[in-house]
Design a protein that fits this description.
Layout (H helix, E strand, L loop, with lengths): L2 E5 L4 E5 L2 E4 L9 E8 L2 E10 L1 H17 L2 E12 L1 H16 L3 E5 L4 H9 L7 E3 L2 H6 L1
Parallel strand pairs: 5-6, 6-7, 7-8
Antiparallel strand pairs: 1-2, 2-3, 4-5
Helix pairs in contact: 1-2
């Protein structure tokens, strides 16, 4: 009998020679999107958990709505555990839209080394204004 545990996108599973089954009480890393307004004309979008195709449309809509009424949009990815190429596409599109409207778009990576590595490996990290903390983003 073979036994191993693996982590899949949104559930922890156990796999055996008889098949796989979800682990009860296993933590999930569901995507969260929180919006804060620390000062007038600025919105901070905090991403938590794992973001992929599942959350991309909601994230894009959030960014689009916030670009209408804010001069500075900050994407705080320091609580994100993972982003995929669809989220990278959302970030690139938002950055271009912000530039086209003469708005600032800043990405906070902080303590998200996995996300920073994903952006670095894909070659898009250099496209963004990246800072380590929200406080530095607000001061920019």
């Amino acid at each position: 009998m073979y036994f191993f545990s693996c982590y899949m996108s949104r559930v922890n599973v156990n796999a055996t020679s008889n098949g796989w089954y979800p682990m009860s009480g296993a933590p999930t890393l569901l995507p969260t999107i929180d919006v804060r307004s620390p000062q007038p004309g600025t919105a901070v979008v905090v991403l938590g958990g794992e973001h992929d195709l599942y959350s991309a449309d909601r994230l894009q809509q959030t960014f689009d709505d916030l670009l209408l009424g804010n001069e500075h949009l900050i994407a705080d990815l320091s609580s994100a555990d993972f982003i995929d190429s669809t989220i990278i596409g959302v970030l690139i599109k938002t950055s271009k839209e912000a530039d086209g409207r003469a708005r600032k778009f800043t990405i906070v990576l902080g303590t998200a080394p996995v996300v920073e590595r994903i952006l670095e490996v894909t070659g898009v990290l250099v496209l963004f204004n990246v800072v380590p903390t929200v406080e530095l983003a607000l001061a920019a």
